[in-house]
Each structure stands twice: as C-alpha cells, then as structure tokens.
Amino acid sequence: MSSETKPILYYDDRSPPVRSCLMLIKLLDIDVELRFVDLFKGEQFGKEYLALNPQHSVPTLVHGDLVLTDSHVILIHLAEKYDMKGNLWPKDYEKRMQVLNRLFFECSFLFRRDSDFMSAIVRQGFAHVDVVHHERKLTEAYGAMESYLENNEYMAGEQLTLADLSIVTTLSTVNLMFPLMRFPRLQRWFTAMQQLDAYKEANCSGLEKLRHTMEHIGKFQFPTTEAKVEE
C-alpha cells in the first residue's frame, strides 16, 4: 500500500463507532475522503457497498488495497500510520495491551448493550421496549467504567488514547437516555472529553442527528440532550 494513498471512509455520523473514527481523524489531522452511507435509507444494502462490506455496517475504511470494516481496527490502523509519537496508540507493549483491552470492552460490552437498546426502539417502537431491562444492563457498563477510572485519569491510563475515543462516542449516546448521575469519576472524564475540539467537531453533530432520528422512529423524547449535558 502506497503511503501516498488517501484513505476513504464510508460513514454515517449517527453511528457512534463512526464518530470515534471521525474524532481520531480530527485529532491527527488526517486527509481522508468521506463518503456518506445513509443507514436509515438502507444504502448499506446496496450491491456495491455489500461487495465492499458484507456486514452492511459503517464505518468502512478503504486505504489502498486494504479494506477494514471494524471501527476499532480502523482506529488502530490510522494510529499506526499517522500517530507517529504513539500518544494515542502507545508504543509500550503493556500500555498498548491495556488500550486494546478497553477497545474490546467497548465493542463486546458497552456498544453491544447500547446497540441492543437502540435496535429494540427501531424494531418495536419505544412504547414497547423494556426500558428498565436496558437501563440495568447499561448501568452495569457505567459501573465498569467508573472502576476503570478509579486510579486513572483516562480509560486506559494517564493519557488520552484510542480507548477514550472509542468509548466516549458510545457513552454520549447512552447518556441521552440514562444520564450519568451516580458515577462521579465517569462524569468527570466525560466532561473533560466534551471539551476536546475533536469531540465538538466530530461527535456533537452526529449525536444530535441520531437523537432526532431515534425520537422520530420511536415516537418518544430522550430525557437529556447534548446541550443539557454540557450545561
């Protein structure tokens, strides 16, 4: 793969994993071509896109001959290529494994529970969703993150890493429904993440689009908005 090849990111910024990639792109000032795929119009099921990504999901990154269809792998790839100082993807092996551990937590635990909740709203309508069940599952995830921050400023240590970027976009989505009232360390971390220019530029707009879309589909209103959270 030529180092001169410009990456192409297929995206819908209503997706939390997409927003984590967009945050990294902002932080590292990577020149990326963006191609929008409207998930709520079914564009991910188009023949050409399915040939590229049979999982019919976003994000998808094409970088030369390399095609990546998982946001966590995309984050790692872009950091390997463009984070020369190793700030976000540490060069130290044990620190890097800690970041990787948190990335797996996000994809297998936090995002899976968020996705289950959002999918239930899309399929059933909010009035028919067992909100108490989903609140219990997602509050458990909040508790895990509160523990991660007991001795660290960030999710995987004392500096901002890919783990924080991956987690914060999903957390901001969950927080629309279940505010972080009982988790002081997690609230502190979330407030700090919201101050990042990359968060403001790459997460807020997509989060607001998702809120509007889900409220329209589910015929309900989230109890919090990004504006209220920042206040």
UniProtKB/TrEMBL annotation:
- In this chain the GST C-terminal domain maps to 92-220
GO terms of molecular function: glutathione transferase activity; steroid Delta-isomerase activity
Where in the sequence is the signal peptide annotated? Answer: none
Say which domain of life the source belongs to: Eukaryota
Q: Where is the GST N-terminal domain?
A: 5-86
What PROSITE patterns does the entry give?
GST_CTER, GST_NTER
Give the GO terms filed under biological process for this record. Answer: cholesterol homeostasis; ecdysteroid biosynthetic process; glutathione metabolic process
Q: Which Pfam families match?
A: GST_C, GST_N_3
Protein name, per record = Glutathione transferase
**Organism of origin:** Drosophila ananassae
